[in-house]
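Reminder to self: tokens first, then the designed residues, so the page reads top to bottom the way the pipeline ran.
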């Protein structure tokens, strides 16, 4: 240890030791101040994180409320349109007495069958679809032979 300055002198060793104690206390004071500042800034960081999270949550809740309100308005509009459409359809449908009156009014005309509406045909009991089914199938459920003429298959030589 003889290479250190003032190692052999009593006055120099005391002076250097005193200076190093002062330097250690200054460094210790700086460490305490730095640690205190770190705690203050750490608290501030968590406070800012809380503010940012509340802001994000508030914006998300606002968007969700707006979306729910939009959906509620769309549902209300669709329900209103559905009720309106149902009222219009109800007014277009004939009551049973009106249907019978219409059938009775059209029955004296000979070609009323060709000009009547398909639902009038179903009211009379003969549906075009049923007639078409009956013409294609036998009563036992087997398919009848087609009456359409088919061209013969082309044979190549």
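Designed residues (157 positions):
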């Amino acid at each position: 240890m003889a290479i250190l300055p003032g190692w052999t002198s009593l006055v120099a060793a005391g002076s250097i030791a005193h200076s190093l104690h002062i330097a250690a206390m200054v460094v210790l004071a700086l460490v305490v101040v730095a640690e205190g500042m770190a705690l203050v800034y750490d608290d501030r960081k968590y406070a800012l994180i809380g503010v940012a999270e509340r802001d994000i949550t508030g914006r998300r809740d606002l968007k969700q409320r707006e979306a729910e309100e939009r959906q509620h308005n769309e549902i209300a509009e669709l329900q209103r349109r559905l009720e309106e459409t149902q009222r219009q359809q109800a007014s277009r449908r004939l009551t049973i007495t009106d249907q019978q009156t219409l059938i009775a009014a059209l029955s004296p005309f000979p070609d009323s069958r060709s000009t009547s509406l398909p639902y009038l045909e179903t009211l009379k009991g003969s549906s075009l679809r049923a007639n078409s089914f009956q013409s294609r199938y036998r009563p036992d459920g087997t398919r009848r032979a087609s009456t359409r003429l088919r061209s013969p298959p082309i044979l190549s030589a």
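The chain has two domains: 11-93, 96-106+114-136.
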